[in-house]
Design goal:
The complex is a heterodimer of chains A (405) and B (258). With 405 residues, chain A is of the alpha+beta class. Chain A has 13 helices and 13 strands. In chain A, the strands form three sheets. In chain A, strands 4-5-10-7-9-8 form a six-stranded mixed beta barrel. A four-stranded antiparallel beta sheet of chain A has the order 3-12-1-13, sandwiched between helices. In chain A, a hairpin with a 2-residue loop joins strand 4 and strand 5. Chain A is elongated and about 100 Å long. In chain B, the strands form two sheets. Chain B has a seven-stranded mixed beta sheet, sandwiched between helices. A four-stranded antiparallel beta sheet of chain B has the order 2-1-4-5, sandwiched between helices. The chains are: A alpha+beta (405), B alpha/beta (258). Chains A and B meet through helix 1, helix 10, helix 11 and helix 13 of A and helix 2 and helix 3 of B.
Chain lengths: 405, 258
């Protein structure tokens, strides 16, 4: 029996004017926002994560705190870390390697243009090898740095573009001036889709130290742990060690030990904020859509008084008239939801493909059928609820008066 | 006609309908009394404002009287709820309106199926019955058309088919030829006559005395909300039976008082 009302509702909807469909914009936009947001979820996370250079799950980053200036990580710290901190961390039982890294501000000249950029130091030997692995860096052109390289650099992928700030793409074999000294570009890295890695300038540690003279000071220590399971213990060990070395109490640390999880959590917090914002907008949109349905259904009941009269004359009970308008209203909501789900999913697919193209990842869009079915049922429900009062008005019509139109 | 008057289908007993209009009351119908027997063709005749539409609404159980009692198939319907009335009229009364009143968004066939849907008939049964009825009014080739795509006469024939959907006791036709030209009007009336000959009770509301006397067995003449006279077919002529009817009314009143 209810199927009859659905069919009847669909037939009536088919003959609706554009006005009715426009009132669905609210529901449509709301559902599109929610569905695309969720299907893009994994992609967004990966994209934002990549921008922060979060990739490995085995690396803990130690940075000095008390930042008093803007700049590269650790570079503005008052009480800087030193190579001996790295050596001490290296001696912890849970730690495999502790690689001191320096991020230095340098002047880069190429094609007669000057830019202020950041160079990152590369360690030597086994640490260098792990460094490439941990940062997931590969050469697209040329090669990676070797320990014996002196005045040689490896550059991020963005340097190979024309819009790298030098108005000319940098090729392997090109010479660039760093702080006035000539360096040869030996390799261009593969694209990472990350602001940090795609603009990176990698120079062997001793060479960079000669160039900028940071001595023992270290901007951050990348700690590779022996086993992923030891993550929590390693963090505790490092924190304890560093508290002792720097003479600070627990809770007053002037340094920061961050794990990829923690960093990812930060990313998720940011994303969560964005998502909450979109959900609020979507909710407002859906509310407006629901009011639109109330409006269009109320008008529809007024316009179709005669039809209501006819239905009653040929035997429709109040409840049956109610059901017809109730279902019609629900179907109206469902239509908005359906379009929203389709467009939202398409945005999810296209967006994820875009992120994949940009980051070189192989993420797939999250197509959550529970979410889709939920969105559809929800849209029907919102439409139906919005239609309750108009449908009650329709059911209440006096047949004699309604027949007069 | 004597053999037709076996079963009383509709009976109005001292029925009045008053409408409040501001501070005053409009007496649309006063003390109407009549009976319709199974298989009769009855016309309710009157000029505009005579109360014939009100009478039709009451007979068709679209409305309830202010005073008096209405019996449909021996059941009192004067004080039923809106939904019970709907159920009863859906089952027992088939309406034909002056302006056809088909639902424009539904095809001809769907329009005929609709009254059966409200009675909970299965979809297969509805389809079969609708096709059968449309064949009866010779419109089965137009089943898939929408009302806007067929002529007025055809629309009225669809309305006739729809009125028969639930196999009602009574066909109630309100000015069925009012919106049609003479020729198509005659075709529609022929269908109604055919139905009547097959035993269907037909009540027609009209302002046209010629139409009333051409087709009806009994004509109730209304004027200013009251019964003016009752004429009855006797061979080719109509004879005035008002006195007889009024006497009946008096007797009824007496009985009620007793």
């Amino acid at each position: 029996m209810n199927l009859d009302y659905l069919i009847l509702a669909l037939k009536n909807l088919k003959h609706r004017g554009i006005r009715s469909w426009l009132t669905l914009l609210g529901i449509f936009i709301g559902v599109t926002a929610v569905v695309s947001l969720i299907s893009l979820g994994a992609g967004l996370q990966a994209a934002v994560g990549a921008q922060f250079g979060i990739s490995s799950t085995q690396v803990i980053t130690v940075q000095a705190g008390g930042i008093n200036a803007f700049g590269a990580p650790g570079s503005g710290a008052v009480n800087k870390l030193t190579t001996s901190d790295a050596d001490a961390i290296k001696r912890l039982s849970s730690v495999d390697m502790a690689i001191p890294r320096n991020i230095e501000t340098i002047r880069v000249e190429f094609n007669d243009m000057l830019n202020i950029m950041s160079a990152i130091s590369m360690p030597y030997g086994e640490e260098k090898k792990r460094g490439w692995e941990v940062m997931d860096l590969e050469a697209e052109k040329g090669r990676l740095l070797q320990d014996s390289d002196l005045k040689k650099v490896v550059l991020g992928n963005n340097f190979a573009n024309d819009d790298n700030g030098f108005d000319k793409s940098v090729e392997t074999g090109n010479k660039i001036l760093i702080n006035g000294e000539k360096f040869e570009v030996v390799g261009i890295l593969k694209k990472k889709g990350s602001l940090i890695f795609d603009n990176i300038i990698l120079i062997n540690n001793d060479v960079l130290e000669d160039l900028t003279g940071y001595g023992d000071e270290v901007d951050l220590i990348a700690v590779v742990i022996k086993d992923t399971d030891l993550m929590n213990r390693a963090v505790e060990d490092i924190e304890k060690l560093m508290r002792n070395r720097r003479g600070v109490k627990e809770g007053e640390e002037d340094f920061e030990v961050s794990t990829p999880e923690v960093m990812m959590e930060t990313v998720n917090n940011i994303l969560g904020g964005v998502q909450a914002f979109i959900v609020i907008i979507a909710s407002i949109s859906i509310l407006v859509g629901a009011l639109g349905i109330v409006n269009t259904m109320t008008t529809s009941v007024l316009e179709r008084r005669k039809e209501i009269g006819i239905m009653k004359a040929i035997g429709a009970k109040n409840s049956q008239v109610f059901m017809q308008f109730f279902f019609e209203s629900g179907m109206l909501g469902l239509m908005g939801g359906l379009v929203g789900v389709v467009i939202g999913t398409l945005i999810g697919i296209a967006g994820t493909a875009g992120i994949n193209g940009f980051l070189g990842t192989e993420l797939s869009p999250v197509i959550d059928f529970v979410l889709i079915i939920g969105a559809l049922i929800g849209s029907f429900f919102i439409g139906a609820v919005a239609g309750i009062v108009p449908a009650m008005n329709a059911a209440k019509q006096n047949p004699v008066e309604a027949l007069r139109g | 006609m004597g053999d037709k008057k076996e079963r009383e289908i509709i009976r109005l007993r001292n029925v009045s309908k008053h409408y409040p209009m501001g501070d005053s009351v409009v007496k649309a119908l006063s003390h109407l009394e009549f009976k319709v027997y199974e298989g009769e063709f009855v016309a309710i005749m009157g000029p505009s404002g005579s109360g014939k539409s009100t009478a039709m609404n009451l007979v068709g159980s679209l409305d309830v009287p202010t005073f008096g009692t209405i019996y449909l198939d021996n059941g009192d319907i004067s004080e039923l709820s809106e939904s019970d009335l709907a159920q009863i009229r859906g089952k027992k009364i088939g309406f034909i309106f002056q302006s056809f009143n088909l639902i424009p968004n539904l095809t001809v066939k769907e329009n005929v199926m609709l009254p059966m849907m409200f009675q909970g008939t299965s979809i297969e049964e509805r389809e079969n019955k609708a096709e059968e009825l449309l064949r009866l009014v010779e419109l089965h080739e137009r089943m898939g058309h929408y009302p806007g795509e067929i002529s007025g006469g055809q629309m009225q024939r669809v309305a006739i088919a729809r009125s028969l959907a639930n196999d009602p006791e009574v066909i109630l036709a309100d000015e069925p030829t009012g919106n049609l030209d003479t020729k198509t009007g005659a075709i529609v009336m022929d269908f109604l006559e055919k139905l009547n000959r097959k035993g269907k009770t037909v009540i027609m509301v009209t302002h046209d005395p010629d139409l009333a006397e051409e087709y009806a067995d009994v004509v109730y003449w209304l004027k200013d909300g009251e019964l003016e006279k009752v004429t009855k077919r006797c061979g080719k002529k109509f004879i005035d039976v008002t006195k007889k009817k009024k006497k009946e009314m008096k007797n009824n009143k007496k009985k009620r008082k007793e």
